[in-house]
Amino acid sequence: MPVAEHVLRHAAGSPSRVALRGPLGSLTYGELAGRVQGGARYLKGRGTLAAIALEDPVELLVAVLAADLAGVTPLVGDHAWSPERWARITAAAGADLRVREPLPYVPGAPLVPEPRPGDRAWACFTSGSTGRPRAVVRTRASWTHSFPYLDELAGIGADDVVLVPGPLVSSLYAFAAVHTLAAGATALVPGGRPAAALLRAATAVHVVPHRLAELLEQAPGLRTAVVGGAALSREARDRAGRAGVRVLSYYGATELSFVACDADGGGMRPFPGVEIEVRAEPGRRLGEVWARSPWLADGYLGGAAGPLRRDGDGWTTVGDLAEPYRAGQVLRVRGRGDGAIQTGGATVVPEDVEAVLRKVPGVGDIVVIGSPHPSLGSVVTAVVEGASPPPRALLEAVARGGLDVAQRPRRWYAVPALPRTGSGKPARGLVADRLAGGDPEIRRLA
Asked: According to the UniProt entry, where is the signal peptide (predicted)?
């Protein structure tokens, strides 16, 4: 990962500053640098791609930084995968080294970082909403060179205590943790629901939209929230503003990194260094978002198939849909093209429906999918998250008031908890699979 050099520099200047606080303890920058050096000496010469899956996020980051210092590309995986699945997925990605236990400390002379911008310095798994993991690899420069822009936009610096509340197998949270270390700040990596003491200490957070509200209540010292992974509602931004929290929301993808951001509530505009085009087929209102920037990933390891596509001029897309766009305008993303629902000749973008229904009191979150229909092709189907979902009559009334006829769900279901991707977004494909498979936890709303 592209921050071992930063960590060693911070250790030399501020060795007693706390670098990491996790569920089992803390490490100062001096202690972290020592652990990284010892782990790097162990990894040196053992392979070129290290698949790393450790439950303790502090130990995981030690191993990732050690791999970086040793000149090995770290590939971060999910410690909860079974040994069989882990072996199968990492072999497909081409990993020649596997780390499932904390790295041993090997004494010896300090290793000197030799980073190059073109190094393949990070790889992680992405499944999007389908649940089928593929490994994305990127160069050192594609992340480190974006750090100063994020520093300026979010105002995160060495004095901050940054909460990273999600799993580091997610690129969203992994980026948050390593950016924090590059800035010389303290990263809180609880590895799950953070304890009250960690929440009280946090001054900044990287989070997905559905968790922002609870953190505003639980972390009174917050001053900055970096929000990614899905659209942030105006209500959520206003609530953060009333709490005195500065919000930077952004749109991107694991394969694209940052594409657009909104620092003031005025809408998504290109992240520094990014060019955007929205390419629509004739007769269609929505088009695909294409980006050209220094922040793009190299691609997938092991020749895996995925949504990433390139043209001959440096432009890349993952198939997300947006409204027509011109340079200087606000980018209005409407979701992934492969999630669009074809119903009776109309195209329905699930995110448009979800944005309306998510405002209904009692809706924890919601996923909209297409269910097969013999004559319409598909019908719009809503799956509401919540232990006590609102009555169907209320949901239908809100749908009638805010949605076109084609957009209104014909079928309504409820589930106690939606399955989610590593970044915390609802896993749309898994919801569809569970519904089609007759999952007893998903009940029909009468």
From this structure: none
